[in-house]
Amino acid sequence: MAVGGLAIGTFVPFRAAAQSASSSKAGPEVALEELSITGIGYGGERATGPVIGYRATRSGTATKTDTALRDTPQSVQVVPRDVLTDQGDVRLTDALTNVSNVQAAGTLQGRTETYNIRGFNTQTGAVDGVLLNQSSNFFSVTRDLANVERVEVLKGPASVLFGRGDPGGLINIVTRQPTLVPSGDATVQGGSFGFRRFQGSVSSAIPNIDGLAARLTYAAQTDPTFRNYGDRDNSRFFVSPAFTYTPTPDTRVYFLGEFTRQDSQYDEGLIARNGRVPLDNLSRYYGEPFARYNGYANFTTLRIEHDLTANITLRQVLNVQWGGFDQFVVRATGINAAGTLVTRRDTATDSTYAAVDSQSEMVAKFGFLGFEHTALLGYEYTNGYRHSYTTQGLIGSVSFLNPRFGAIPGAVSLQGDLRQKNELHGVYLQDQIDLGLGLQLVVGARFDFGTQFYFNRTPTSGAAPPYQDLFGASPRIGLLYRPFEPLTFYASYANSFKPQTANVLGAVNPAPETGVQYEVGARLDLIPEALTLSAAAFSITRENVAATDPRNTGFSVITGEQRAEGLEADLVGQVLPGWKVIASAGYLDARITKDTTFAVGNRLVGVPRFSGSLWSTYQFQGGEFRGWGFGGGVVLVGRRTGDLNNSYTVAGYARVDATVFYDIDERYRFAVNMRNLTNARYIEQPYNQFNNAPGAPLTVLASITARL
Does residue 64 contact residue 74 with C-beta atoms inside 8 Å? Predict the structure, then answer.
C-alpha cells in the first residue's frame, strides 16, 4: 500500500514468497507511481516497497516522489533488506559499509551512531522521510534494524526538500509496511562475547474492517562486547507498531510508531598518545563499571494521502517525537607529561527533547508547453526543543597501560544548563520535467524561516540572549541525459542549511551552517534489469562548521570553512542467477580551507583518502545443494586523522567477512556469519584524542529464522 513518496516496505529473506504476497493486492498501490517521470514499474518495484535482491531501481528520498534512480540527478545508494539479512547486520554501521564514501564517525561514547558522508559529519537522519529531532545535536539511542526495509543514502545536500541538514548527505530509513495477507517472521541470534538477540514481526489484516492492516515488530538484544566493562552488558529494546488503512481506493492512511530503550556502558574507547592509538589491548577501558548511559526515543508518524484526481495527490504528514537520556559517567581529560597516567572527571547529565513536524504537500502530474511535469509543492512546520543539565567533578587518575577500576566519584558542580528551541517554517517547490530527446530537468527551491533560542548557563555565563531570527534559501537544479537506454549522465547543484545545535562556549546563537555541492555522475546498466554501475565526482564546501573545542572538552568551536572533493563508484545487482554483489569504492580529499583556530590544509576528522567494500553471495539454484549459499567480502578503509589539529592518525585496515547459510525450505533459514576473519586490530571510529572506538576482533554470529 503506497502511503507517500517516502514510506515503508514489506519483508525480508525468502523474497520470492514475500513478493508474491505483496503483488496479490496491488490495486490502490499504484497511485504515486503514476506520478513518476518514467511511469509505472521500472524494474517492477515501488519506492515504498521491498527490493527484489540487492539492486533497487526506485527511491523517493531525493525527490519525495516515486522516481527511478536513473532519473535522479543526485547520487542515491540503497541497501536493501536482503543485504542486511545475508550479512547478518545488527548495526546501522554494518549496513552503511556497503555505500561509497560513508564512514562510521564515532559512537559518542557508546550512546548512538554518527557518520561521515562525503567527508562531513552527520549525527541524525530521517525515518520514512521525517527528520529526527534537529534541536538535539545527536540522536539518543542506536538504530535498530528489525523494521527496516531499506537504508537509503542521499549524497550531498538535501535541504531543498528536508530543510535543515548536513551538506554531506542524508540517511533515510524506509520501514516495513503492514500487509493484508498474514505474514510473520522471527529470528534468534547468538554469537561471540555473549551476544544474544531476538527479533520478530507479525502482519495481517484486521478482522471486520475492510482495508485495515497492522504490523507489530519487536527486538531485544544483550551485548556484553569484547570491551572490558567489568560485569556489565549493553542492552536495547525496540517495539514498532504500524497500521495502514484504505477506506476508499483514493485515500490512504498510515501510522508508524517506534519506541526504543537503551541501557549501555559509557565507553570512550582507546586514547591516542604520541601521535597514535596503541592497539596492543583492544579491551582496555579507562572508565568505571558504574559509568552508565540510559537513553530512550519515541517516534510517531501519521501520514494521510488523498487522490483528488488521477494526476493530483494531497499528502499530510504529522510527526511527534520525544526522548532523552541520563548518564553518570567517567571521562578522560588528559595524559600526564610522562604518558603514564590518564586524568579523569565524573559527569552527570539529564537531557530531554521533543519535536513536532507537520508536512503538507501536493504532487501533480500535468503537461505544459509540450513538456511532461511532475510538480511537488509543500509547506513544513517544525517546533522542537531540548534541555540538558550537566554537572561534573573530579575522579582519580588511572594507568594508561593498565587501568584499574575502583575510584570513588568526586563531588559535582554545575557545568552547563542548556536550553534550546527551534521553530521553523519551510516552503518548497520542485518540478521534474521530461524535456524529451532523453533530457530531463529537475529544479527546486526551499525557503526556511523562523526563530531559534539558544542559551547555555554556566558558572561564568551572563544573561540569557534574545531569540535569533533564522533564514535559509536552498535551491537545487539537476539535468539528466540518456543517450541510449542503459546509460544516464547527470549534473547537479544543491545547497544546504542547518541551524547550529552545538554547545559553543560563550557564543550567543552561532550562525547557521551552510553548504554547496557541485556533482556530475553517470549510471550504467551493465546487465539490463540485473546489474548497475553508478559513479560520481563532486565538490562540497561547508561554512560555519562546529567542531570539538580543543581547549574545552564538551564544547564546540565554529571553525570557518571546509571542503571535500572526491570520486566514488557503486556496483550492485545480480551477475548470474543466484550470484549477487554489492560493492563500492571512494576517494576523498577533505580539508580545512579557512579557519582561525585550526591550520588551513588540515584533513577532516575520520575521513580516509581511499575506502571501499565488496560483498558477494552465491546460492545454489538446483541439484543436491539447492538452498545452500555462501558469501564473503572485504571492507577497506585508509589512514585517518583523529582531530582537526591532525595531532594523531589511525592506520587503515582491511576487514574480511564471510557467511554460510541454508534455506531449509521457504519457511526456515539457518546462517553463520563471520566478521574479521583475520582478527585484524584496528580503530573503526576515531573521534578525538580520548574517543577512539576499536573494531571488534573475530566474531561469529549464528542465526535461525522462521517465517509464516
Answer: no
